Amino acid sequence: MKPDPHPGATPIDELVTANRILAREGVIDSFGHVSMRDPADPRRFLLSRSRAPQQVEPRDIMRFALDGSVVGDDAAKPYAERFIHAAIYERRPEVLSVVHTHSPSVVPFTVVSRRMRPIMHMCAPIGSDIPCWDIRHRFGDTNLLVTRLEIGHDLADALGERNVALMRGHGCVVTGRSLREAVFTAVYMEVNAAMLTQALALAEGPEDIVYLSEGEIEAISKGRSSFGIDRAWENWCLRANRPFFAQV
Ligand code: MN
């Protein structure tokens, strides 16, 4: 067999790239993580060992079952909050990637009654109905971390069929039907939060904001192709010093 003249990245390489991009774009810092469902087995997902995303390398990627347990004899220390990913993959068969962030412009929206909604067309994937899950409602005073499957399930219930959910005093979760889609939505969720905060500072009053309408969000979602996501991905690969592959 002839070698492929245009070899693509492996899923693990792409997951490493996703880690580096989210770090470079300021969506995750030393904390936060991104996972993908294992293309070889939908009952498994791939996620780095407990390490800052900017540092993640292919050998750091571990494999997990949908109860958050480690698959195989990998002795590395996993992220304490891997149950966020496990619970969402279990509840949402169509979700192929999950991002968890503490992205700085998003967190303020988790502690106020004003709802986050999209104001700019690139941010439409976050949707207009964004729930804010509060760990305290069911689990009382905790360290706010999703360290058990039971807590992950409660978060997944709040997320429902949506793309994103806020986590009070903590951050957010973002889902995608591909790794690139989840990263795209996570980046533009941070962008939307920063722009909305600026718009609120300029507004004549709390009602003086024009959000995207339901119809606009639907039209943008319908007309969306992978082209826009790949264009962003190529640019973000350059910024993160990672190789770009047009197809995976
Ligand atoms: Mn967290």
CATH-scheme architecture: 3-Layer(aba) Sandwich
Instruction: Round the mean pLDDT to the nearest integer and report it.
Output: 94
- Give the cofactors and ligands: manganese (II) ion
Highest CATH level, the class: Alpha Beta
Low-confidence parts: none
Please report the distance between the alpha carbons of the first and last residues: 20 Å
The sequence of SSEs as H and E is HEEEHEEHHEEHHH
Q: In percent terms, what proportion of residues is strand?
A: 5-15%
Which descriptor suits the 3D outline? globular
Rg from alpha-carbon coordinates: 18 Å
How many helices? The count is 7
Strand order of the largest sheet: 3-2-1-4-7-6-5
The main pleated sheet reads as: 7 strands, mixed
Q: Indicate the CATH topology.
A: L-fuculose-1-phosphate Aldolase
How many beta strands in the DSSP annotation? 7
Q: Please, what is the CATH homologous superfamily?
A: Class II aldolase/adducin N-terminal domain
Structural class: alpha+beta
Q: Give the number of domains.
A: 1
Helix content: 25-40%
Task: Please give a structural write-up.
The chain is of the alpha+beta class. It has a single domain, classed as L-fuculose-1-phosphate Aldolase, CATH 3.40.225. Helix content is 35%, strand content 13%. It has 7 helices and 7 strands, in the order αβββαββααββααα. The protein has helices at 11-24, 82-91, 136-139, 149-159, 179-202, 214-223, 226-239, and strands at 33-37, 44-48, 61-65, 97-101, 132-133, 164-167, 171-176. A hairpin with a 6-residue loop joins β1 and β2. α1 (11-24) runs parallel beside α5 and α2 (82-91) packs across α4 (149-159). It is globular. The model has no long low-confidence stretch (mean pLDDT 94). It binds manganese (II) ion (MN). The site of manganese (II) ion (MN) has 6 residues, from loops.
